[in-house]
Amino acid sequence: PPTVEEQPLNLEVAPLIQGAEKSWVFSKRSGPDWIQVTAAGRVHGTPPEGSYGTYRLKIKVTDEKESDSFR
């Protein structure tokens, strides 16, 4: 979603995935340093001043046994 410089970003990723299960584990694969991803699927961070632009964020999703992964 669009963000504003120096304004916190908070987003829950799990509800956006059809069939998401509580046992899934989320992790950041790549993206700006200011964005963090929790194991529960919460994306958060604050874009610093001068960070205007478009960014890509890749999140890895695995089940608790890491037997399946999605990107």
As a percent range, the share of helical residues equals under 10%
- What overall form do the CA principal axes indicate? elongated
SSE succession: EEEEEE
Total strand count, please? 6
Largest sheet: 3 strands, antiparallel
Strand order of the largest sheet: 1-4-3
Give the mean pLDDT: 85
Question: Nearest-angstrom radius of gyration?
Answer: 13 Å
Please give the count of helices.
Answer: 0
SS content category: mainly beta
Q: Which range does the strand content fall in? A: 25-35%
- Any low-confidence stretches, pLDDT <50, length ≥5? none
Q: What oligomeric arrangement do these chains adopt?
A: single chain
Describe the fold and architecture.
The protein is an all-beta fold. Helices cover 0% and strands 34% of the residues. The chain has no helices and 6 strands. It has strands at 9-12, 25-30, 35-37, 42-45, 58-62, 69-70. Strand 5 (58-62) and strand 6 form a beta hairpin. It is elongated and about 40 Å long. It starts with 8 loop residues before the first strand and ends with a strand. The model has no long low-confidence stretch (mean pLDDT 85).
Short description:
This protein is mainly beta and 71 residues long.
State the main characteristics.
mainly beta, elongated
Secondary-structure blueprint:
Elements: E1 9-12, E2 25-30, E3 35-37, E4 42-45, E5 58-62, E6 69-70
